[in-house]
Design goal:
22 helices, DHBP synthase, nine-stranded mixed β-sheet, about 25% strand, Alpha-Beta Plaits, eleven-stranded mixed β-sheet, single chain
Length: about 750
């Protein structure tokens, strides 16, 4: 007989782990206890040593499906304490706490069956949940994960629910959000006449949706704005009120059968759509039926219902809803009732509310499925706060991210805790949410950063925050160049070490020469890098204004190519002013950005002269491109200190094609094929000089699946080892992981 102490770390709280242990233990005749702690789940048992070892192995094999075991530490003692039963005992707080927290989980099949069962006590109960599903991250205030440390604390369980909670054989055993109609939260509807409806709430909401009204719906991680997606007038009204002229809306479909009416769905895409994470999946359109939903591209962002409340909203007459995050322009998603009714009063016709508080804002995740894997555009609900496990360890670090698509990342041991989607750090509301989430993550995971990392751009709010905190609290602060962080992010995402060649293409990031980079091919590792290839610089005439008025970029492409701009090619009302600004170098900035090159070519082709949202020009080019076109334009690859892609011959040929009446579909494809050719030739030349065959691809430009797939395929067919993102976003949301990786491995530029 021996006594054993077993510490299990990972996602082992809020997923039925202790009940699982209680049931499993009976097979081995072991006695002792199990409890939650702020460091994980701790088990102490007494029994025969071989049975203890078999028990530990079975934990790994038979664990609950939502659990993730990161480590099991077993310590065996000779001294026995004489346990005579096995019990679940009260949770405790350790001096140091470290446990992983489950993301929010979509409703499970058992709860969905009960939701639709007229004989079940939770029939149509909007907050049905069990150990296998329901809210987690968004309601947790602190660990260990017990009801009193969640926003469910104010709801006292009735005798029936408490009986389930205490019954080891029940699916709701120790399910912290467990509740029913008698003891749980309730919904109510504030309609367009400002009348609060508490009876037949769902029917009232559905009737208003069918009549074309816009409803603000409180969900898991915040509010959505919803309307009937098949009602074009309602959708246009939502666009007008939300000041979202053309950017696509996400859709929520009743079921997978409904999705297939509008989109092509592969087996892998269906698996992700129906997974317990329930992200928005970008799917290829079958037809143009929802062009007013997704105007500029070939994809629709589709998700399936994930909260019980969502399922109640659908019927045979209402099977597709627009479900877009409820926030005012550039501000965080709204999570509180009072804030919603004030901020959205000019947008929503009605408010479907409830009294379970949301503690943490968390937007829906957004992915492509590429090569069978998740390819993130936004990593948030369903994934956060599960950490990225990395191959390096360092003292606690906080990485503050960039400005657009802001995120932060905290390192503890070899776990990188990447935040949920924060938004663009351009206003005080987003900044305050950013700071509050940093503090929340530090508290949850007991992280006390010794080093702080930020972007090289001094004017980012995230950079200012990092320097301010560093100076106030005597912390070391390091800057990491933007594209080096992109490179390191993809390396860490794939657990790479050593040197790589990195294709890092995006909008803009401040370069070490204090110009704006964005079309860079780097060579290096976590500690250091060399800029090996770039593109000929483009003028941003008017600075940031050129990112909106993208015909300014087109003007400069023509000016640099021909020495003058023919009005027959590009007719601008303010062309004389633009010309003088170029000639006199007034308020004009240089950039080597591929993203801006996309903007300029989009304007040249007449697709768009003004961008209503970031990346619109590039999205239009991808939508327009002829998939079977393999032609490439002429370009020069000039060698000086580094390879430089001279795009002027390409622009000259594009103008000739326009004049000859070549279709925009062909021109768009040839333009992107030319960029693919530039990338592949540059990589081959760098490989010949370095013998490096590991290639990483990162940056916001690679949200363009046409470009990504062709570069990936060509490099792989040439025998390179090609790595893309699979655990974090390829855009600036993934920057913070890269910043962290650089400094954890001894890189970065000390600034405080």
């Amino acid at each position: 007989m021996k006594r054993a102490n077993i510490v299990v770390n990972g996602i082992v709280q809020g997923v039925g782990f202790r009940p699982f242990i209680h049931k499993l233990i009976s097979e081995y005749e072991l006695k002792g206890w199990v409890k939650n702690t702020s460091s994980g789940v701790v088990i102490e048992v007494e029994g025969e040593l071989d049975k203890i070892h078999c028990f530990v192995e079975d934990i790994k094999i038979k664990k609950p499906k939502l659990s993730v075991i990161e480590s099991i530490n077993l310590t065996v003692y000779d001294e026995l304490l004489g346990y005579n039963e096995f019990r679940i005992i009260e949770s405790t707080n350790d001096t140091t706490k470290f446990t992983l927290i489950s993301p929010d989980v979509a409703i499970c099949d058992d709860c969905l069956r009960e939701l639709n069962d007229k004989n079940d006590k939770r029939y149509k109960f909007p907050f049905i949940n069990c150990t296998n599903c329901g809210p987690r991250f968004t309601i947790i205030k602190d660990v260990p994960y017990d009801r009193e440390k969640t926003t469910m604390n104010k709801f006292k369980m009735c005798d029936s629910c408490l009986s389930e909670y205490k019954d080891i054989e029940d699916r709701r055993y120790h399910a912290q959000p467990n509740c029913c109609f008698d003891c749980g939260p309730n919904i109510y509807y504030l309609n367009s006449d400002n009348i609060i409806i508490k009876e037949n709430v769902i029917e009232s909401v559905k009737n208003d949706l069918k009549e074309g009204k816009i409803i603000a719906i409180k969900g898991i991680g915040g509010f959505h704005l919803a309307c009937n997606a098949k009602n074009k007038i309602a959708v246009e009204k939502l666009r007008q009120r939300k000041n979202r002229e053309e950017k696509p809306f996400a859709l929520m479909c009743r079921d997978i059968k409904t999705v297939r009416q509008f989109c092509i769905v592969s087996k892998e895409e269906e698996e992700h759509l129906t997974s317990f994470r329930r992200p928005i999946v970008l799917l290829r359109k079958k037809s143009e039926i929802f062009d007013y939903i997704s105007i500029d591209n070939n994809y629709l962002g589709i998700m399936l219902p994930y909260a019980p409340l969502h399922f109640l909203l659908f019927d045979d007459e209402l099977d597709v809803l627009v479900m877009t995050s409820a926030n005012m322009k550039d501000k965080p998603i709204i999570k509180d009732n009072d804030e919603a009714t004030i901020e959205l009063k000019e947008v929503a016709d009605g408010f479907l509310l409830h009294n379970r508080d949301i503690y943490v804002r968390c937007d829906d995740s957004l992915i492509f499925v590429y090569k069978g894997n998740e390819y993130f555009i936004r990593r948030s609900r369903g994934y956060t706060p599960f950490p990225i496990k990395v191959e390096f360890e360092a003292e606690d670090i906080l990485a503050c991210g960039a400005e657009q698509k802001a995120s932060f990342c905290l390192l503890k041991k070899n776990y990188a805790f990447l935040s949920q989607h924060i938004g663009d750090l351009k206003n005080i509301e987003t900044y305050n949410n950013y700071i509050s989430q940093i503090e929340h993550f530090k508290k949850l995971f007991d992280i006390n950063p010794k080093k702080i990392v930020c972007d090289y751009h001094p004017d980012y709010m995230s950079t200012e925050y990092a320097i301010d905190i560093g100076e106030k609290h005597n912390k070391e602060v390091y800057m990491v160049q933007h594209h080096h962080a992109h490179m390191a992010s993809c390396m860490a995402d794939n657990n790479l070490n050593g040197n790589v060649i990195a294709i890092t293409w995006d909008g803009t990031g401040l370069g070490l020469d204090n110009t704006l980079w964005g079309g860079e091919i780097l060579y290096g590792n976590y500690r250091e890098f060399e800029r090996r290839a770039t593109i000929r610089k483009i003028r941003l005439v008017g600075g940031d204004l050129a990112i909106k008025e993208i015909d300014r970029i087109a003007y400069d492409l023509l000016y640099q190519t021909f020495g003058n701009v023919d009005k027959n090619i590009l007719d601008m009302k303010n062309s004389q002013i633009i010309n003088k600004m170029i000639e006199n170098n007034v308020n004009t900035y240089l950039t080597s950005s591929i993203g801006r090159l996309f903007d300029g070519v989009s304007s040249l082709l007449g697709l768009r002269h003004y961008a209503s949202y970031e990346g619109q020009g590039a999205i239009l080019l991808e939508k327009t491109a002829e998939l079977n076109e393999n032609g490439v334009y002429t370009y020069n690859l000039e060698q000086s200190d580094l390879l430089e892609f001279d795009w002027r011959p390409m622009i000259r040929e594009i103008v000739l094609d326009i004049g000859r009446g070549v279709s925009i579909n062909i021109i768009s494809a040839k333009f992107m094929n030319t960029l693919v050719d530039f990338a592949v030739k540059s990589v081959k030349q760098i490989e010949s000089e370095t013998n490096c065959r590991d290639i990483v691809i990162s940056g916001g430009v690679f949200q363009n699946m046409y470009l990504l797939d062709r570069i990936y395929t060509r490099l792989q067919s040439d025998g390179f080892n090609v790595y893309i993102h699979k655990r974090v976003s390829t855009n600036d949301e993934g920057i913070s992981l890269g910043q962290l990786a650089v400094v954890a491995n001894g890189g970065g530029m000390r600034c405080v």
